[in-house]
Amino acid sequence: MKFEYAQQNMNLAYFGGGTGVLVSGLVWCIAGFVALLLSNQSSMLTLFFGGMFIHPLAMLLSKALKRSGNHWTSHSLLDTQ
Prior knowledge:
This protein is mainly α. The protein is 67% helix and 0% strand.
């Protein structure tokens, strides 16, 4: 498989990484609002636990936007050689 095809497949499957950036930004904004309303400790806990959900929520959003969220199994970008 050519490298360009592998990149194209990853961009298509994961929406070019945009969903992950969007979800990450939302988690950071929510943590910021928690810091304004409650305390710094609550904000850090929000960021910690919200950070655990960035990848799953990004995959869910990708699938909601009609992207597969899966890449080819024989992928040249994943080869460690």
